[in-house]
TrEMBL record:
<protein>
    <recommendedName>
        <fullName>SpoIIAA-like</fullName>
    </recommendedName>
</protein>
Length: 169
């Protein structure tokens, strides 16, 4: 189900999978970032979310003030939730936010009890979160109907880079 009650965020919830998919939807405007992320905590608690995909690719650079707030207010509440798996989708070119996320994770590492994985884009992360569930095509179609399709990478329809191996010798 697409959730439209948090205006800054594009959110999808699947009760059967215990899954939340979250993307930023307010362009460069981060004025209500904190309020939106407090609402995400409430939604995750209320829905007993076990799997979360946070697509950082859609976020503008997270300010130092918001990073401090996340580390001191948001992360301590997040780690109390019954989350089993969390995916952070972030392109390797988003260096500022990658460093911000790495710092948050390093600070909260002793409290993190869930499996945390990084993917370049959302779709492979959803596959991993859902254990390749047969529900995933329906979830992707629902998301695409509202937000448009996830764009394939420049290398074809791959959403993760290929490993290129050269023969020895």
């Amino acid at each position: 189900m697409i959730i439209t009650t948090i205006p800054d965020l594009s959110v999808q919830h699947d009760e059967a999978l215990g899954l939340l998919r979250i993307e930023w939807a307010s362009g460069q405007d981060m004025r209500t970032f904190r309020a939106s992320f407090e609402q995400i905590l409430e939604l995750a608690q209320r829905s007993q979310t076990r799997h979360v995909l946070l697509d950082i690719n859609s976020f503008p650079d997270i300010s130092v003030y918001d990073q401090v707030w996340m580390g001191s207010n948001w992360m301590p509440e997040l780690v109390k939730l019954p989350i089993e798996r969390l995916v952070l989708a972030i392109n390797r070119h988003r260096v500022h936010n990658q460093l911000a996320i790495d710092s948050l994770i390093a600070t909260a590492r002793p409290l993190i009890k869930f499996d945390l994985q990084f993917f370049l884009t959302a779709v492979p992360g959803l596959h991993w979160l859902s254990d390749y569930s047969p529900r995933l095509p329906m979830l992707l179609a629902e998301w695409n109907a509202v937000h448009g399709p996830d764009l394939p990478s420049a290398s074809g329809n791959l959403t993760e880079p290929r490993n290129f191996f050269r023969p020895r010798g």
